[in-house]
Amino acid sequence: MVWEITLVMVLVHIVAAWLILKIESIPKLFAFIAIGILLFLSISFAVSISAKHVDFRTPRGWIEAGGMYTTWLSGTFNRAKSITLNIVKLDWFEKNEESEKIDEKTNNESIWDKLK
């Protein structure tokens, strides 16, 4: 059931993309970014709730699916945030100082000395 709804959503997005691209007042870059975001949201929605058995025939099922997707999406952003914070906390100076020392050693020689 989830994949059928995803297929319908992707088809609707393709039609919306075609209509967006036909409008000449909207920049093409904006249209492609909007299409990419819509496709990401629809495919990630299907992936995030594919293992769960959600009844889409009731409003309660749609609310449950929306809650699961929101939880999944916020967890994804939190993991990306923690990865970024860990990367920023890394000590990059030792590596840069070492590479500067190597550069200083190689830059002291003139090109003529290297050719001898």
Rg value: 26 Å
Helicity range: over 70%
* Structure annotation, total helices: 5
Shape estimate? flat
Pick out the low-confidence regions: none
The averaged pLDDT comes out at 76
Number of structural units classed as domains: 1
Order of helices and strands: HHHHH
Q: Strand count, sense and closure of the main sheet?
A: none
Strand tally is 0
- The amount of beta strand, in percent, is under 5%
Distance between the termini: 74 Å
Q: What structural class is derived from the secondary structure elements?
A: mainly alpha
Word description of this protein:
The protein has 116 residues and is mainly α. The protein has one domain (2-115). It is flat, with a radius of gyration of 26 Å. The termini are far apart. It has helices at 2-22, 28-49, 59-89, 93-107, 111-115. The chain is built from five helices and no strands. The longest helix is centred in the middle third of the chain and has 31 residues, at 59-89.
Name the descriptors.
single chain, 116 residues, mainly alpha, 81% helix, flat
Write the layout of secondary structure elements.
Elements lengths: L1 H21 L5 H22 L9 H31 L3 H15 L3 H5 L1
